[in-house]
Write a structure and sequence with these properties.
The protein is an all-alpha fold. The chain has 20 helices and 2 strands.
Amino acid sequence: MNTPRNAGRELPRLEVRSIDYVPREERHGKIWHQGPFWFTGNFVFLTMMVGFTGPSMGLGTLWSMLAVVIGAGFGTIFMALHANQGPKMGLPQMIQSRAQFGSRGAIVPFAATVFVYIGFIVFGVILVTQAIQLVLPGSKGFWYPTLVVVSIIVAVVGYDLLHFVQRWLTYVLIATFAIVTFLAFTALPQASATPMPTNWDTTAFLVQLSLAAGYNISYSVYVSDYSRYLPEDAPSGKLIFWTYLGAAGSAVWLMSLGAMLATYIPGADGIVALVTTGNHLFPGFGVFVVMIGAAAQLSVTGVNCYGAMLTGISAVDGFRPVRPTLGLRVAGLSLVGVASIVISLSLPEAYMTSFNGFVLLMLYFLIPWTAVNLVDFYAVRKGEYSISEIFNPQGIYGRWAWQGILSYAAAFLSMIPFFSLPFYIGPAAEALGGADVAFLPGLLVGGGLYYLLTQNSHARTTATANRA
């Protein structure tokens, strides 16, 4: 294996690339770094709040945890499989979608992805502000813009700084939340003097499972962004393993902790529940825990700003070619920041209902994309793409690739009967008592139809790509 020129560097440097290809001589990093990156990337307040769902619907604590394990374990499979695309193609995650949808057709998953990124920024900023206000004064009108600006600065520096911060936060998070988890399983039951609930509710179990699965599947749109600088011959198995271990491990841990907190501190939001639990060790420790969690949430807000910028530039480039300069990155990040601040300030105080609906909407829009993208990479083209043609609107991938667009649309339509939202419950979901398992038909229809539609054309396209 050739050693990349930057293989030994450790200190973060200002990133000069965005949606463009990362040349082999600039590849660097270690495969195992994907583990801590995705551990911290998923170890945030928002992840913990997903675990509140089961107990809040009357599901027993252990049943809620089982739903989390199954859901997060299943959803992370799809997320982790995308990690292999980064070093193989040297491109951000979403611009690869041009091979399945066309340079302009990819605007469909691009729009859904920007929605996901901004949604995570919004809820992240709200939670970090709540944490900071425990120790510092300042209104939402001050802290929301301040936190967004800090996140943008991190995102401007880019890839190396994001990896550096995420990696070192992992050790602090493990040490701090190990104590909180111990307290949640010991001090909280003792303080309540009531046995752990064992109630079974089929609908609540399926809702918790679906939310956990959808939440981790939503990370699929991030993955190649943070593996694309690795050497091209990075072992696929190890790369997928470390990505899966980090993302699934943190999700199962934090969602399960959320289930415990919701069981023994019913009605409390995530911040209050962590403070209450931490203070069982000594007064003030709960606030310390929350501040560590806020640091991780703010770091991930930088990750979301970075991803939104990459996807937004990719969308614009599909209609009007742009030079991926530092100035363009800053402009893209600024637009993302303004939109996030406006939406954050407009949300009601009771944002948990909005958050649960947001997670389900992420599931609906991203499941068809991940099914099409993974089938194309692993089953249709088997990792063989022409990078130059991805940037050529007149090239072999075209402007509008009907196979990908039709498969996405069919998958989305197949999910509608299974939707379970505050404003709409599909007939299949209603028959299941309100439970939402829309991800199953979405994956099967999206991936299966795309595979069938591309069987007559993929060989010719792949051969042309190999000559390009």
